[in-house]
Amino acid sequence: MKKTWDHQALVEKFEANRNGELALPMAAYMRNQFPFLGIKTPLRNALLKQQFEEYHLPSTDQLIEEVWKLYRLPEREYHYAAIALLEKRKGQLTLKDLPALRQFIESDSWWDSVDSIAPKIVGHVVATDRLQGSAIMLEWSEADNMWTNRAAILHQLKYKRETDRELLAMIVQQHAASTEFFIQKSIGWALREYAKTNPEWVGSFTGRHSLMPLSRREALRNIH
Fold first, then answer.
1. What is the reported pLDDT for 207?
2. What is the reported pTM?
3. What angle do CA 66, 37, 182 make, to 5 degrees?
4. Do 60 and 92 meet the contact criterion of CB atoms below 8 Å apart?
5. Tens digit of pLDDT for each residue in 129-186?
């Protein structure tokens, strides 16, 4: 019988597998932005699977609070676990949860966390109400936080034929002249992904608009 969700039980699982030798190179790979426990992805996923099998997921009204309990811990693996918990319950999230998701994006920000939250979780929420959700993404695109901008650029990454091309174009053009590497890269990624569905549109768009060289190169990588 499953038990009531207990984040401390997951902490105990992770702490029991702390590996200082692995933690140093893992932190170095992320440019020492965060400390690590030294738990590689396969083991982390196995521990999470065990936790999800043993414990009920938090209720909808408790979810954000429980996610924060993990996200506030310093080691990066706890942030990954928090995002995994969000993804497990993304079907219960609504537009009202976008401010909380933005807080996660703007907390301990780096490409690994933002790129997990934006397409899979934010994108799912926006898809439940495209009209209001798209308006909020335009607000995110105009935010002062670079990572929130990146999330707005990437939120349609998994939409394929459901991509709102007008919205994509609008957001990309807002940041086309950015000198930020992570913004340039995200623009190229978003366009390259949509090119798998509509290469003609992406080819035409890049031909009609000025993009930074990195963005253009990434966008056209698979278009011959």
1. 96
2. 0.96
3. 80
4. yes
5. 999 999 999 999 999 999 999 999 999 999 999 999 999 999 999 999 999 999 999 9
